[in-house]
TrEMBL record:
Annotated protein name in UniProt: mannose-1-phosphate guanylyltransferase
Keyword Nucleotidyltransferase found: yes
Keywords, alphabetical: GTP-binding, Nucleotide-binding, Nucleotidyltransferase, Transferase
Pathway: Nucleotide-sugar biosynthesis; GDP-alpha-D-mannose biosynthesis; GDP-alpha-D-mannose from alpha-D-mannose 1-phosphate (GTP route): step 1/1
Residue ranges of domain Mannose-6-phosphate isomerase type II C-terminal in the record: 346-457
One protein family per Pfam: NTP_transferase
InterPro entries: GMPP_N, Man1P_GuaTrfase/Man6P_Isoase, Man6P_isomerase-2_C, ManC/GMP-like_b-helix, Mannose-6P_isomerase_type2, NTP_transferase_dom, Nucleotide-diphossugar_trans, RmlC-like_jellyroll
Name of the gene this protein is made from: xanB
Class of the enzyme per the UniProt entry, highest EC level: transferase
Species assigned in the record: Thiosulfativibrio zosterae
SUPFAM superfamilies, alphabetized: Nucleotide-diphospho-sugar transferases (SSF53448), RmlC-like cupins (SSF51182)
Length: 461
C-alpha cells in the first residue's frame, strides 16, 4: 500500500506559528518533530512507500525533514498552485498502477493511538481490496461545528452532512452513529479514477492533460498552465458524496486536526497544571503565571508573564505576538487577511526562513538596512543573482565561503569579509564539509526579499 500525503495546506489559523513558507505541517510542535514527520513515521508500518503531493515552494522543506527522520523511500508530485484535494489525489493516482492500493492522509493531523490507527487502516484495506472507496469516520468527543459529519450504519455510509451548528452537532453525538469526516481515504488508484471520470469527467480529463508525457520520475512536476486548467474541488464534493462504492471505517484513534489554537490547547494541556505551555525552544524561559489559569502559552526566547487572566491564547514568535480569547481562535484567519495588507512578509515568512541551501535569520530590519545570519549547508550554493536596490556586506563567522562576483571567484574565511555592489552578479557557495555561517548586512533604499533577479539556480526557482 502507498501512502499519498497531501502537503498543500497553509495553516493560516495557526498564525504566527504557521506561515506560507513554513506552514503548520512543517512546524515542530511535539517531541521536536513536525506533524509531517509524524505522518510519515506513523504510516511506515502499514505502507511500503510515500507519494508526497506538495506545493513546489514546500518541496525542499519536505526533503529536508525526511532526511532528518532517515526516510528516503518517497516520490514527489509537485503542484505549482493548489486546486484542492480531488485533483491532487487524482494526479497522484495517475502516476501509479490501477491496482495499487493507496492510503490518502493529510500531513498536518495528530494521531495519538498508533495501535488503533493501524487496526483501522487494516480494516479499510480489506474493504478497499473489494473495490470500495473507504473513508475514516472519527468518533466525536464534543459538538464540533468546524467539521463535516458522516452518518453511518456499520461500514455503510447513509449520508454526508455539512458543518452543522452547535445544536445539530450535539444531536449527532446523541444519536451515536455520526462521525467526524477525517479527510483520510483508502482505495485502489484505478477505482478512484474510474469514479472521478464518471462523476467529474472534465476534471479527470484535465488531470490527464496535466500529467507529464515523458514518464513518471521520483519528482513529477506539473506545469502551471495545465494545473490552472484543472477544475478546483474537494474529493468529498467531486466523488465521495456521489459514488455508490463508498464505505466508512468508524474509529477512535486519538485524532485531532489541530486546526486552531483551541485544538492545540487541548493537546498541550496536562492534568494538574493550571496553564498549557508549549516551549518552542529548549532554553525558552518558563512563563510566570500569577493567579492565571486555563491559558495556552506558546513561548520562544522572551520571558512571558501573566497576571490575573484566564482563558487566553498567548502565541509568541520572534516577530509577532498573537493574543486571543479562547474560543475565538477561528478568527485568526481574519487577522492574517489584515496582515497580508499591512505587512505581507509577516504572513509569508518567519524571521528564521528555510531555503533549499540552508537557512537565514533576520537579526535586524530597519529603514535602509537589514542584518541577516546565513547558514549554508555543505555542498550547497545560492543562485547566481543580482539586486537593483541594495549593496551587501558579507562577513564569514565559520566555515569557508566560495564567492563569485561577476567574473571573479575567491574564498572568504572566518573573520574575513567581502562587499557586493548593487547590480553585480554574485553567488555564495559552501564547498566545505561543515556549515558555512556568515553575517550579511544589506544597505539600500529597499531590502525586500523580492529584490532578487536569479540568473542561474540549481533548485529551479
Amino acid at each position: 500500500m502507498i501512502n499519498i500525503i497531501l502537503c498543500g495546506g497553509s495553516g493560516t489559523r495557526l498564525w504566527p506559528l504557521s506561515r506560507t513558507m513554513l506552514p503548520k505541517q512543517f512546524v515542530r510542535l511535539f517531541n521536536n518533530r513536525s506533524l509531517f514527520q509524524d505522518t510519515v513515521l506513523r504510516n511506515q508500518p502499514v505502507c511500503s512507500h510515500s507519494m508526497i503531493v506538495s506545493n513546489k515552494e514546500q518541496y525542499f522543506l519536505a526533503v529536508d525533514q525526511l532526511s532528518q527522520i532517515h526516510s528516503h523511500n518517497a516520490q514527489f508530485l509537485l503542484e505549482p498552485v493548489g486546486r484542492n484535494t480531488a485533483p491532487a489525489i487524482a494526479l497522484a493516482c495517475m502516476a501509479l498502477d490501477a491496482d495499487d492500493l493507496v492510503l490518502v492522509t493529510t500531513s498536518d493531523h495528530l494521531v495519538k493511538n498508533q495501535a488503533a490507527y493501524e487496526a483501522a487502516v487494516l480494516e479499510a484495506k480489506a474493504l478497499a481490496e473489494q473495490g470500495n472507496l473507504v473513508t475514516f469516520g472519527i468518533k466525536p468527543t464534543y459538538p464540533e461545528v468546524g467539521f463535516g459529519y458522516i452518518e453511518a450504519n456499520g461500514h455503510e455510509v447513509l449520508s454526508f452532512k455539512e458543518k452543522p451548528d452547535v445544536k445539530t452537532a450535539q444531536s449527532y453525538i446523541d444519536q451515536g452513529n455520526y462521525y467526524w469526516n477525517s479527510g483520510m481515504f483508502c482505495f485502489k488508484a484505478g477505482v478512484f479514477l474510474d469514479e472521478l471520470k464518471h462523476y467529474a469527467p472534465e476534471m479527470h480529463q484535465a488531470c490527464l492533460n496535466a500529467m507529464p508525457k515523458d514518464g513518471f520520475k521520483l519528482e513529477i512536476r506539473i506545469e502551471l498552465d495545465t494545473m490552472n486548467a484543472i477544475p478546483e474541488d474537494s474529493i468529498d464534493y467531486a466523488v465521495m458524496e456521489k459514488s455508490r462504492k463508498v464505505k466508512v471505517v468508524p474509529c477512535d484513534m486519538g485524532w485531532s486536526d489541530l486546526g486552531s489554537f483551541d485544538a492545540l490547547f487541548d493537546e498541550v494541556k496536562q492534568p494538574g497544571l493550571e496553564n498549557a505551555v508549549l516551549s518552542r525552544l529548549d532554553d525558552s524561559p518558563e512563563p510566570i503565571c500569577i493567579d492565571s489559569s486555563n491559558n495556552l502559552i506558546v513561548a520562544r526566547e522572551r520571558q512571558i508573564a501573566l497576571v490575573d487572566v484566564e482563558d487566553l491564547l498567548v502565541i509568541d514568535t520572534s516577530d509577532a505576538i498573537l493574543i486571543s480569547k479562547k474560543g475565538s481562535s477561528q478568527k485568526v484567519k481574519a487577522v492574517v487577511a489584515q496582515i497580508k495588507k499591512q505587512a505581507p512578509e509577516l504572513a509569508d515568512i518567519h524571521r528564521l526562513a528555510f531555503r533549499p541551501w540552508g537557512t537565514y535569520e533576520v537579526l535586524q530590519d530597519s529603514e535602509q538596512y537589514k542584518v541577516k545570519r546565513i547558514v549554508v549547508k555543505p555542498g550547497s550554493k545560492l543562485s547566481l543573482q543580482k539586486h537593483f536596490h541594495r549593496n551587501e556586506h558579507w562577513i564569514v563567522v565559520s566555515g569557508t565561503a566560495t564567492v563569485t562576483v561577476d567574473q571573479d571567484v575567491f574564498l572568504v574565511r572566518p573573520n574575513e569579509s567581502t562587499y557586493i555592489q548593487m547590480g553585480q552578479l554574485h553567488r555564495l557557495e559552501n564547498q566545505g564539509k561543515i556549515d558555512l555561517v556568515m553575517i550579511e548586512v544589506q544597505v539600500g533604499e529597499y531590502t525586500g526579499e523580492d529584490d532578487i533577479v536569479r540568473v542561474d539556480d540549481i533548485y529551479g526557482r
